[in-house]
Amino acid sequence: MSDIKNPVAQGKPPYLLTPGPITTTDTVKEAMLRDWGSWDGDFRAMTKQLCDQLLAVANASETHVCVPVQGSGTFAVEATLGTLIPKEGKVLVLMNGAYGQRLAKTLGYLQRAYVTLDKGDYLPPMPEEVDEILANDKTITHVTVIHCETSSGILNPVPEIAEVVARHGRSLIIDSMSAFGAIPVDAQQLPFDAIISSANKCFEGVPGFGFSIIRRSALEQCEGNAHSLSLDLYDQWLYLEKTGQWRFTPPTHIVAAFLQAMVEHAAEGGVAGRLARYQRNQQRLVAGMKDLGFRTLLNEKWLSPIIVTFLSPQNERFDFTEFYDRIKAHGFVIYPGKLTVVDSFRLGCIGQLYDEQIDQVLVAIAAVLDEMGIESGHAVLTEENEVTA
Ligand SMILES: *Cc1c(COP(=O)(O)O)cnc(C)c1O
Predict the structure, then answer these.
(1) What are phi and psi of 336, to 5 degrees?
(2) Residue (of 312, 325, 337) closest to 364 by Cα position
(3) In the 3-class helix/strand/coil scheme, how is 14-51 assigned residue by residue?
(4) Any idea which architecture 3-19+270-380 has in CATH?
(5) Domain-by-domain residue ranges, the chain?
(6) How far apart are CA 92 and CA 113, in angstroms?
C-alpha cells in the first residue's frame, strides 16, 4: 500500500531523512541550470544579497558581518576558529557529542589551547557549569557551543549559556550548522561573536559553502590570526568589502540555488514558518514511532525539531543495515546513530518533508518491522544510561 507513493518505485530518488544534504525543491535545483561569471556584477550582487539576507535573519546587520567560505560546514567552523582565536587564546569547548568532539579536534590541528566540559553523548552543558569554569579560569578567552548537537539531536541551552559567557566578558562561538534558519537567533538578544552555518541544512540549499556571522568589532582585531590562507575569514571579509568578490573561485551555482532557497524560506514565513513545519514533522514522527513501540533517546524537553535519535529495538532480528536497506526500498533514506553507549538510529525532520512524507515513512517503518519479523520497536535504557537532565 505504501508503494502507491513510493518515489523509488516511480524511479525517483528517495526522500532524505538526514541532517543534510537534505531533500531540496525542484526550483532550488533548477536555479543551478545557469552559469555565472564570478567577477561579473550580477554575481557580485548575488553575493551581497546572500550576506545581507543572512545578517537580516539573525537581526545582526548593525553589529555583525557575514563571511561566506567555500567548502562544507566543517570548513566554515575551522575557518572561524582559526580566524577569531589568537595563537595565545584559550578555548572552553562545550562538548556533548560528535560535533563538539570535532570542534576540539580542530583546535588541536590549529594548536590552540583548550579545555573541555564533556557531557558525554546526550546530556546538555548547563549554564551553571559554564559559570563555574569561567569563574575559576580567567585565562579562557573563548567558549564554543554546538547549537543543535546533530549526533543526538539535542537542542543545547544556548541563550542561557550565551548570557553566562557575556557576563564573564568572554567571546562565544556558536556552531549552529543544523539549527540556524529554523531556530530563532537574534543577535541583539543573544550575545555571540560568531555563529556558523552552511547552505545545506535548515535553509534547504545544496551543499558547497558555509558562512560565519561575525561581530564586526571582533573581526577587526583578527588580522594575522589565521593559520591558513584559504580559511582566513579576515582576509576573505576584507576582499569581499573591497571588491564584492570571494577571494577564490566561488561556488556560483550553489549560491544561486541558495538565493532561491532563501526566497522559499521567506515564503514559508522565515524562521518561524520553517520552525513550525519542522516541529510538526518531529511531533508527528515521534508520536507515530511511539505507536510502533520505539522510544527516543532524549527526554521530550531536549528533543530538537531537527533530528531525533531513536533507540534500536531490543530484538535479535534487528540489524541496522538490513533495516536501512529495506526502508530505502520503501523510498526513504534514514541515518545511523552516532552514540557510543547505546545502539540507535536517527530520523531527520528537515528538508522537503511534510505531513504526507512523515505519514509515509511511518507506514514504511511499520512494513519493514513486519518484513523483519520484529513485533515492536521496544527498547529500554539501562538505569545508568537514562537521560535524567
Ligand atoms: C552538519 C554539521 C556540521 C558540518 O558538517 P559538514 O559535514 O562539514 O557539512 C558541523 N556541525 C554540526 C552541528 C552539524 O550538524
Answers:
(1) -70, 165
(2) 325
(3) CEECCCCCCCCCHHHHHCCCCCCCCCCHHHHHHHHHHH
(4) Alpha-Beta Complex (3.90)
(5) 3-19+270-380, 26-266
(6) 9
Ligand 1 mutation pick, 75, 146, 178, max ligand atoms within 8 A of CB: 178
Of ligand 1's listed atoms, the one at least distance from the Cα of 148 is 13
**Quick one: cell of 103?**
570542534
Question: Which residues line ligand 1 at a C-beta cut-off of 6 Å?
Answer: 19-20, 72-74, 77, 99, 146, 150, 175, 177-178, 198
Q: Is the pTM of this model over 0.90?
A: yes
CA distance 312 to 382: 13
Q: What is the pLDDT of residue 389?
A: 44
Which class does domain 26-266 fall in?
Answer: alpha beta
How many C-beta atoms surround the C-beta of residue 376 within 10 A?
A: 12
Quick one: 96 exposed, middle or buried, by C-beta within 10 A (0-12, 13-18, 19+)?
Answer: buried
Q: Which residues contact 175 (CB under 8 A, 6 or more apart)?
A: 77, 99, 103, 144, 145, 146, 147, 196
Collect the ranges in the chain with pLDDT lower than 50.
1-2, 384-385, 388-389
pLDDT digits (tens, 9 = 90+) for 257-275: 999 999 999 999 999 999 9
Instruction: Return the C-alpha cell found at 35.
Output: 552559469
pLDDT value for 1: 46
Residue 335, beta-bridge partner list: 346
Q: Whose CA is nearest to atom 3 of ligand 1?
A: 73
Closest to 203 in 3D by CA, of 79, 14, 43, 24: 24
User: Residue 214 C-alpha to ligand 1 middle, in angstroms?
Assistant: 18
Identify the bridge partners of residue 15 per DSSP, sorted by sequence position. Answer: 332
- Which residue of 155, 198, 204 sits with most ligand 1 atoms within 8 Å of its CB, as the best mutation to test the pocket? 198
Question: What is the predicted pLDDT for the residue at 3?
Answer: 56
Q: Which of 336, 31, 335 is nearest to 199 (CA)?
A: 31
Tell me how far CA of residue 180 lies from CA of 132, 162, 271, 384, in angstroms: 28, 16, 8, 33
pLDDT at 4: 57
Strand, helix or coil at 240?
Answer: helix
